[in-house]
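tokens incoming
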């Protein structure tokens, strides 16, 4: 995008700001400056007026001109085709040195004296325009004969080329760049002067009618003029040449100039394309089969794809007597989606429309007419024909505290409001003064959320003006109860697999008749399933064990001899409240057939199964319990205790159930997962001294529970007694109501190696206390 300093001054007063500062500010606000070129006309090049222009007497391609330089008249021989009497031209006087190094001297051309040179644009270091010399008009300022061109600021300009990202379609115009620059410089944008239409003007309805299909996406504004003469001002031609947009046709130049200045897409059609005679024309706008809006003329001929291209046959030129002018706008998303990957010829409009053109069509059309009427003689029909669509307005609510966190520091509220308003945003505060409501201007298609608004504020304030702070990374804690529950289940599942169990999964539904047969609790009838899947799955399960038994039975039928299964899953109580359980079943052989067991492995037993469970959940105690269902054997059943809390049970399957399912010896366990330990591993002090063990065989009443005896011994013993557990039970008729219970006691001190005398003393004291309490003696 090429801009010039003097062109910007049409919209903002930057007369007191240097070009260097303008470039620095453009870089600061994100409009990166790619290059800067300074245009300065050499000294001794002045304004002259061609008084006479006659053919050279001895050269067909030369003209002898009398040129008025204000205080003198010079004879100059000129070879330009376009030189003519009455023109204001650039004259290099004798002694002038041109940019290419040529020094102007007195000369004779084919015998005719020439004092100076009438210059073309390229000879003065300006971009090439038309063939021949430059012809000035008042667009560059008052033309004073003999005044040096270096004194005309509109010609001696600074050319700035900026790089724009694809999302900044709003800056694809001089007005758009000036709007951005007005914010850091705190300048007002000059309003476009709109001349009122004359009362006696003919209305546009006499010559034009517009018909649009209801599915059209774009907005359109049409004007019509009749021409007498079309000219483009010299300044328009020069600036278009700076931007590499110079066209041969003057009408095309004015269209290009107005589009480049305002960002509004403008086209001109020959009136004849919409009618076969000089009568009222009809413009038809409807959808093309490719999804793009298209303009159609007479005989249903398609004249243009809106925002994409226009056929050459219907492009208006300065020769057309009547011209239809069009300003259009279509949302860039629609243009991009419908033009992508389609073989459609396009012109420069596509580059603008796909990035976002200016939606204010009146602004662009009025600017064009102002420039056209400056040098052209046209009769413009009053009024307009319009097809307007509702443009979606984006509204964003911003919390100023959150905005300060995004920026990294708090920006003054009034400064934020001023920045946004100068950029064209609407800003309001309602009940809460800390909540800002922002209405995004329709030309800013790239602003979608509060982060985009934050970026606008930061680029204007300047990233260098925001104090640097050390990076603080604070991630929100993602560990919650659900995550902890998942990790706990995962830990026990992995441990179960590590011990040799295989995981199985079942439905949460069960067979009500089977649950009742096993003597398990069932869901209250009023809370039973209304529409069960099948009759075999007609209730919610209250235990994992029935399904594990079924799976064990099926595995046995498949020839498996050692069946080890587990499941973690939801079970329900009578009120349908959920709880998470961990169930185990071990049936058949403890291990596979191998040499060490001579091909005859032992079957699982109660204590081996309990040891397997201990390898998964850690240490626990077994206490006597009462069987309340028909699944467990009353002779091999125990409650699982961790500390003082009961977490589940271990038992053998009742013999009748084993026989019914053709199972070998089978043990089951069901635990409440929520009661199982989980958390950080705690390190405990341990002794580096020798561990000592003693076995005691005691005569214990049959009715005395081991747990009671154990707790009493631990309560009476010193801290050197680490552990006590049974290793043998022996019964005999000779013992009467007693049994022989052999206990293993382990001793260890944190301070020293215990002597035999010390251990014996502890044992003697324990034997005395338990005899006093329970009447228990050594066997």
């Amino acid at each position: 995008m090429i801009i010039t300093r003097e062109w910007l001054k049409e919209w903002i007063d930057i007369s007191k700001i240097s070009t260097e500062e303008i470039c620095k500010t453009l870089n600061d606000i994100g409009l990166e400056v790619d290059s800067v070129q300074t245009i300065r006309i050499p000294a001794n090049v002045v304004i002259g007026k061609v008084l006479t222009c006659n053919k050279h007497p001895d050269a067909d391609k030369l003209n002898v001109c009398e040129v008025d330089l204000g205080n003198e008249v010079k004879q100059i021989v000129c070879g330009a085709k376009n030189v003519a009497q009455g023109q204001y031209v650039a004259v290099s006087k004798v002694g002038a040195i041109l940019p290419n190094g040529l020094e102007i001297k007195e000369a004779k051309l084919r015998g005719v004296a020439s004092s100076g040179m009438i210059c073309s644009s390229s000879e003065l270091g300006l971009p090439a325009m038309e063939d021949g010399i430059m012809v000035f008009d008042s667009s560059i300022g008052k033309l004073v004969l003999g005044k040096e061109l270096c004194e005309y600021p509109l010609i001696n300009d600074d050319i700035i080329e900026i790089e724009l990202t694809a999302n900044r379609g709003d800056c694809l115009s001089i007005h758009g760049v000036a709007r951005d620059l007005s914010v850091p410089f705190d300048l007002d944008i000059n309003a476009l002067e709109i001349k009122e239409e004359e009362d006696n003007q003919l209305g546009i309805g006499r010559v034009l009618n517009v018909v649009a299909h209801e599915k059209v996406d774009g907005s359109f504004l049409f004007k019509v003029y009749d021409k007498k003469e079309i000219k483009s001002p010299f300044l328009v031609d020069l600036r278009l040449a700076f931007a590499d947009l110079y066209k041969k046709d003057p009408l095309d130049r004015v269209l290009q100039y107005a589009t480049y200045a305002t960002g509004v897409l403008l086209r001109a059609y020959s009136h004849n394309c919409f009618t076969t005679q000089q009568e009222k024309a009809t413009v038809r706008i409807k959808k093309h089969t490719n999804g793009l809006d298209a303009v159609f003329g007479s005989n249903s001929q398609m004249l243009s794809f809106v925002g994409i291209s226009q056929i050459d046959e219907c492009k208006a030129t300065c020769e057309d007597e009547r011209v239809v002018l069009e300003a259009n706008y279509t949302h860039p998303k629609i243009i991009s989606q419908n033009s992508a990957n389609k073989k459609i010829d396009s012109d420069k409009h596509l580059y603008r429309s796909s990035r976002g053109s200016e939606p204010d069509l009146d602004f662009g059309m009025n600017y064009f007419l102002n420039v056209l009427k400056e040098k052209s003689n046209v009769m413009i029909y009053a009024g307009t024909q319009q097809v307007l669509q509702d443009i979606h307005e984006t509204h964003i609510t911003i919390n100023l505290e959150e905005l300060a966190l995004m920026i990294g520091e708090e920006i003054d509220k009034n400064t934020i409001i001023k920045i946004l308003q100068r950029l064209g945003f609407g800003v309001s505060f309602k009940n809460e003064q800390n909540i800002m409501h922002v209405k995004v201007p329709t030309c800013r298609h790239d602003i979608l959320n509060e982060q985009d608004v934050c970026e606008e504020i930061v680029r204007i304030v300047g990233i260098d003006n925001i104090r640097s702070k050390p990076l603080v990374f604070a991630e929100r804690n993602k560990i919650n109860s659900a995550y902890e529950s998942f990790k706990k289940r995962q830990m026990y599942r992995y441990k179960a697999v590590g011990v040799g169990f295989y995981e199985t999964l079942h439905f949460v539904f069960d067979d009500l008749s089977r649950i009742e047969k096993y003597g398990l609790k069932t869901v209250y009838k009023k809370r039973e399933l209304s529409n069960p899947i099948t009759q075999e799955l007609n209730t919610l399960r209250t235990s994992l064990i029935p399904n594990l038994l079924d799976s064990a039975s099926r595995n046995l039928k498949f020839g498996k001899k050692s069946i080890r299964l587990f499941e973690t899953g939801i079970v329900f109580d009578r009120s349908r409240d959920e709880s998470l359980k961990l169930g185990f079943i071990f049936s058949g052989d403890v291990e596979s057939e191998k040499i060490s067991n001579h091909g005859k492995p032992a079957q699982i037993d109660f204590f081996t199964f309990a040891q397997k469970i201990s390898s998964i959940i850690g240490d626990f105690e077994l206490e006597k319990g009462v069987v309340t269902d028909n699944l467990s054997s009353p002779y091999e059943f125990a409650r699982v205790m961790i500390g003082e809390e009961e977490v589940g049970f271990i038992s053998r399957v009742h013999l009748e159930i084993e026989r019914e399912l053709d199972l070998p010896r089978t043990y089951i366990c069901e635990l409440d997962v929520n009661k199982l330990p989980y958390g950080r591993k705690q390190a405990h002090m341990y002794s580096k001294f020798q561990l000592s063990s003693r076995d005691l065989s005691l005569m214990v009443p049959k009715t005395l529970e081991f747990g009671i005896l154990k707790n009493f011994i631990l309560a009476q013993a010193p801290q050197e007694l680490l552990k006590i557990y049974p290793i043998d039970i022996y019964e005999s008729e000779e013992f009467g109501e007693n049994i022989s219970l052999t206990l293993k006691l382990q001793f260890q001190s944190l301070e020293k190696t215990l002597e035999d005398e010390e251990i014996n003393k502890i044992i003697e004291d324990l034997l005395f206390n338990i005899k006093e309490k329970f009447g228990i003696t050594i066997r």
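note: The chain has a mean pLDDT of 91.
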